[in-house]
Amino acid sequence: MRKYGKWVTGWLFVLPCAAVLTLMAIYPLIQVLRFSVSDVSIIGFQTEFSGTRNFQRIFSNPALVTVLRQTVIWTVVSLALRILIGFSAALLIDTGMKGRTFFRISMLIPWVVPSIVAANTWRWVYNPDVGLINIFMRRIIPDFSVVWFRDFAMASVIASYVWTGFPFIMLMVMAGLRGIPSDYKEAARIDGANSFQVFWHITLPNLKNILMIVIVLELITGFNAFDLIFTMTGGGPGMQTTILGIMIYNLAFVSRDFGRASAASVLLLGIVLIFFLIYTPVTAAGNRAKNRKGAPK
Predict the structure, then answer these.
(1) CATH of domain 62-285
(2) pTM for this prediction
(3) How far apart are CA 3 and CA 147, in angstroms?
(4) What percent of the chain has pLDDT over 90?
(5) Interacting residues of 83 by C-beta distance below 8 A, sequence separation 6+
């Protein structure tokens, strides 16, 4: 009887979370899957089974190739820059530089700023008339008149996205650096290794698991991106900054084609699921490696 009571108590604690998860994640997922194989009427969201017609319309859309290419460019370039800046900032802080506490706090500001606030801030920075960049450049080149969201649209939103996200990678790398025993570096220096050799043979190998996790998480985040691009450019001008998330929004809420929007969502879900399936064994391998290192010899 006591065992049964503990079972009931456990379920009572879990039930609220399970109910919220069902309402906020599982039910919408089921609806998206149902809509993806249906003709959806806006009135009452009545559905009629249509098989794979929505997927055929998505894959026959010539814009899909452009959108997928831009999504890959957006994700890969922003990932590379986020890792480069975040990794460099973490290494700089780890050197014991003066003022590193202030530097660390200031580096976290982009991460804690809400994405909508960051997007609108960067819209002002890129403004061709009163934007900070153009005002500064006109002091050097009086005729400077770049319209950033026209001439360098994708580069502009990528730069903004990198700014908002590199602190997360910095924190992850800093945590990994704290876990590297100082004896390793000291022994390498005693053996005559220079700073680069210590980094290449000691620091980088010990950060391998963390970097793999960061890469997979950032790939998932990049493919799921929406709010910053939507606020800054709405996917424009034209389709210069349209990625999968923007395409899905336009299909659903501009074209009112919820069937095709759901089919595109399933495509995006499949891409993210691939990265999730990579993430699971990577984290498991990292935990096994960590346990082997900590195991008594």
Answers:
(1) 1.10.3720.10
(2) 0.87
(3) 69
(4) 58
(5) 169, 211, 214, 215, 218
